[in-house]
Design a protein that fits this description.
By secondary structure, the chain is mainly beta. It has one helix at about 50-55, and strands at about 25-35, 35-45, 50, 60-70, 80-85, 90-95, 115-120, 130-140, 155-165. It has one domain: Immunoglobulin-like, CATH 2.60.40.10.
Length: about 160
């Protein structure tokens, strides 16, 4: 008498689209998040100056970030991007699972694997002109702990200044 559970044969396949080659980045960052992920840097296809008169009500900060796995992650961390105003408050934000349309959760990252993550932060209609700081980090949802940045007292990294006109 067999009380065990019989499973069909399993097949392990290679995940399509994995890359371990770090692409060139216009803005290098090199921030280590908890020895689990490294923010290599970012590219800014549209620049970091936003003219409200040109984009109307559809203004957004857009950057393409490049991450690299350092250690395996057993939990699904999300990437947060904050636009921080001169007084230190968050003017706008975007949080998402990594990868294009969230297709590369951190639980699947391999050490050395490179993941490109697009960031788009929509600006609220009432955002005032001025200089803002673009801040990135990783956290465990829904409101769990953030990964610390190695050799820093912070759990985020400020990567650029964004000018809103």
């Amino acid at each position: 008498m067999d009380d065990g559970l019989t499973l069909p044969p399993l097949r392990v396949t290679e995940k399509k689209g994995r890359t371990f080659d770090v692409p060139p980045v216009a803005q290098p960052v090199d921030a280590n998040f908890g020895n689990r992920a490294r923010l290599v840097g970012f590219n800014t296809p549209d620049g970091l100056q936003i003219s409200r008169s040109e984009c109307g009500g559809n203004c957004a900060v857009q950057v393409e970030t490049v991450w690299q796995g350092i250690g395996e992650m057993e939990q699904p961390y999300r990437i947060f991007a904050h636009l921080v105003g001169p007084a230190g408050g968050i003017a706008a934000q975007s949080d998402a699972q990594p990868g294009e349309r969230g297709r590369h959760p951190t639980t699947g990252w391999l050490p050395g694997e490179v993941v490109t993550h697009p960031v788009r932060i929509a600006l609220p209609p009432d955002v005032t002109p001025g200089s803002y700081t673009l801040r990135l980090g990783m956290y465990l949802p829904p409101a769990g702990p953030r990964l610390p940045v190695e050799n820093s007292a912070n759990d985020f990294v400020d990567i650029a200044t964004v000018t809103v006109k």
